Amino acid sequence: MSFDLAVVVAALPAILAGLQVTLGIWLAALALGIGLGFAVAALRHFGPGPLGLALRLAVEVLRGTPFLIQIFLLYFGGPFVGIRLDPVPAGLLGLSVYAAAYFSEIFRAGFVAVPRGHVEAAQCVGLSRAQIVRRILVPEMTMLVLPQCVNMAVILVKETAILSIIAVPEATAVISALGSQQYAFVESLFLLALIYWLLVEACGWAGRALERRLSKFRFA
Amino acid sequence: MTLPAPAIAIRRLCKSYGQTEVLHGIDLEIARGATTCLIGPSGSGKSTLLRCIAFLEEATSGTILVNGQPLGFEEQADGRRRRLPQARIREVRSGIGMVFQQFNLWPHMTALGNVTEALVTVQGLSRREAGERGMAQLRRVGLEARARHYPSELSGGQQQRVAIARALALEPKILLFDEPTASLDPELTGEVLNVMRDLGDEGMTMVVVTHEIGFAATVGQRIVFLDHGRVLLNGPPAELFAPPRHPRLTQFLETYLDRGAAMLLKPA
Ligand SMILES: Nc1ncnc2c1ncn2[C@@H]1O[C@H](COP(=O)(O)OP(=O)(O)OP(=O)(O)O)[C@@H](O)[C@H]1O
Ligand SMILES: [Mg+2]
């Protein structure tokens, strides 16, 4: 078995296109997952009880089932309940909701971890509830949850590979298809491993850089 | 002749946590322009009482008047309490500043940011004007040079002084302190107590929960001794600490020999 670089070079445009889809879906799902996850966490923390309970149930289900099953259900089961989506929107929706479930748990723990005294100090100088959320809770929570958010981003980039099974033209789908056409299974798998690992490293590096910049805001 | 109205008047204040009552009908007046020290054994309810005055806890019954205005609740003609509208509550509360044992500075803001936050967010001052007023308060606690530092870059004593400046920025009539030096290294307590002493000299009304008996005896114009959720003793330190002393107070002082109580217990 020899690693045939020529195969890779010839397929570079297709590979780059796949990579672009992977990156696009990953970043979009990250942004949507963080936004939606934050909204869910805030509603669970500040909202009425019954709503919190319903959201909690949804989060539990999403966290308690494999993403593979969720995306199958959405894509193949969706049409039975009138949700007919193309692979890319289906993949993006599925991944975002899945990410939101995890992010909401991270943020909820973050809200709880902000010391009560910091909120009380804000009450004492007259900040309103909304001002306390905006000026104290959210910034403090952001610092606390940053490492877990980076961790979740890393998990998410790897989960995008699963979208290949609903024919989303992302890196795994494109490259493994090339691999079987060219009888270069090992090369394609190796290349995929390398691509995901580099993405994860880059993500970790960005996260650490951000943490370093925020380190002087740490709790005294 | 009418006596000057007290800064704070507390009537029959009770506070329960669930089934457990921890304050049993506190009656207390806090004199204007004086430093009142709240002392008492652990669990006697000092923090709870102070937090009720700061409206961080809602008393179960009773009333608190701050500068003559009801805080949080108003007693109606039929004796029942009515919760006041939020705007009224905030207005009365704005006359009170609070300093905590744990400083509770916001870690993502500089010293100046902590001091000016409410000036900008609540009072709507411009950044420049708030900055000037904030700097003036930092100067007052001797920390002008540390304005751009984050809390994590300050010593405990400096953090507590920033916290005092933050409370002062809103120009409250009354300052409450809950064991302001209890989480400081002994060599740092002095700088905080000195700032408090200066404030007292300037005529600030202060209520200080403290275990620093030496500070209470020298700076406190009034000592309130709380025991089991009741005001057991209330008077000027010279009276309270001089023999013949209440046996509970003597017992209490004997556990604080290292905080300046030894001096008070020494036979004359
Ligand atoms: N949030 C709470 N829930 C239940 N019980 C409480 C709560 N806060 C205080 N207590 C109880 O109320 C009583 C008075 O507590 P408080 O903190 O006011 O005492 P303290 O005089 O400040 O004591 P210390 O000197 O240890 O600070 C204690 O028995 C305490 O256990
Ligand atoms: Mg206490």
UniProtKB/TrEMBL annotation, chain A:
ABC transmembrane type-1 domain sequence ranges: 19-202
Membrane topology: Multi-pass membrane protein
UniProt main location, coarse: membrane
Membrane-crossing segments per the record: 27-46, 53-76, 88-107, 188-210
CDD domains, alphabetized: TM_PBP2
Keyword Cytoplasm attributed: no
GO BP annotations, alphabetical order: amino acid transport
Secretion signal span: none
Keyword Transmembrane attributed: yes
Any one GO MF annotation of this record: transmembrane transporter activity
Subcellular location: Cell inner membrane; Cell membrane
InterPro entries: AA_ABC_transptr_permease_3TM, ArtM/GltK/GlnP/TcyL/YhdX-like, MetI-like, MetI-like_sf
SUPFAM superfamilies in UniProt: MetI-like (SSF161098)
GO CC term, one of those recorded: ATP-binding cassette (ABC) transporter complex
Keywords associated with the record: Amino-acid transport, Cell membrane, Membrane, Transmembrane, Transmembrane helix, Transport
PROSITE patterns in alphabetical order: ABC_TM1
Family to which the UniProt record says this protein belongs: Belongs to the binding-protein-dependent transport system permease family. HisMQ subfamily.
Official protein name in the record: Amino acid ABC transporter
Species the sequence originates in: Methylobacterium platani
From TrEMBL, chain B:
Listed Gene3D superfamilies: P-loop containing nucleotide triphosphate hydrolases
Membrane topology listed for this record: Peripheral membrane protein
Lineage top rank: taxon: Bacteria
A Pfam family it matches: ABC_tran
Chain ranges of the ABC transporter domain: 8-253
Keyword Membrane in record: yes
One GO cellular component term noted in the UniProt record for this chain: plasma membrane
Major location (coarse): membrane
GO molecular function: ABC-type amino acid transporter activity; ATP binding; ATP hydrolysis activity
PROSITE patterns recorded: ABC_TRANSPORTER_1 (PS00211), ABC_TRANSPORTER_2 (PS50893)
Positions in coiled-coil regions: none
Keywords of the record: Amino-acid transport, ATP-binding, Cell membrane, Membrane, Nucleotide-binding, Transport
Compartment list: Cell membrane
Record has Cell membrane as a keyword: yes
Family: Belongs to the ABC transporter superfamily.
The protein's name: Phosphate ABC transporter ATP-binding protein
